[in-house]
Amino acid sequence: MVEDGRKLGIFEKYLAAWVVLCILLGLFLAQYFPVLSITINNMQIAGISIPIGICLFLMMYPALLNVQLEELKKLFHNPKPIIITLVSNWVLAPLVTAFLAYYFLAGQNQLIVSLILLGSSPCTAMVLVWGVLAEGNQEQNIINTSLNTITILFLYAPVVSLLTGIQNIPIDRIALVITVFVFIGIPLVLGYFSKKYINGRKGEDWFRDIYRPAVGKIAILALLTTLVVLFSLNGNVLMQHPEEMILVSIPLLLGFIIVVGLNLFVTKFAGLRYKEAIISVIIGSSSHFEIAIATAISLYGLGSQAALGTTMGLFWEVPIMLSLVYLGKTLNHKGFWKK
Asked: How many CB atoms lie within 10 A of CB 332?
């Protein structure tokens, strides 16, 4: 959902505010126009709402346009920060998030799964913006985000299956694999070939300055539309039990603090310089909330606790990551990392 990887547009800059507005609009529709969201949800194929499925696909495609497979050949130039980030993304963050979910959300299986989906999904889009704002190493940023997109294809379903299996939480593993294929695999292939085609016909400048920003805006509109429908379907239940969203936020925020703290000290003791360290911390501590939301909806439906739970990752993403950018700069000025 990043327009050009260099600045925040009005949608990204105020994403948290847009999310709140969509939540309020959804709650309003739940009270006064419930038939609208029910009708949208009922237009289904294989249990997935067709309009929402289209929105979820549009959320994914622009993010995967950022993938630059040609950059992966630079992996061995400076592998240490890449390895640290991969370990954080696929070992540290999933385990910390899962065990906090087991502890704080015992008995609430769908909410546990929502946190596992968030903790097991390394970000591939907005981190390009956070990395620029933090003045980190952008070559590393591109390599890591491209690598994350490839690893999600192969690791997301097994990691989620493993962490849900530890607590014997039943999930449809076939639906999980299909979701990864539909919402990561297909957009990845489509993104690669459409980028190649457009660059050949229109040039790289037109792709970067016109096409990608345009589809980026469409992606955010699709995301916000999904949120409105999601909260309109769940509005009445949510207003009767608002503690569930607070309950989800506690392990989510605590997990972020733990993962960020560990990543800060790992990058320090590994002897990384600031520009590499801050990218490792940012990417190693963030979530790909789009795939988490898509998977929750595919597994449990639009009107589920799991779908609502994953939206809390979206709700906290912008303020948390902006805080991390400022924290990184402050620590750098105080000499936390090598110069």
From this structure: 18
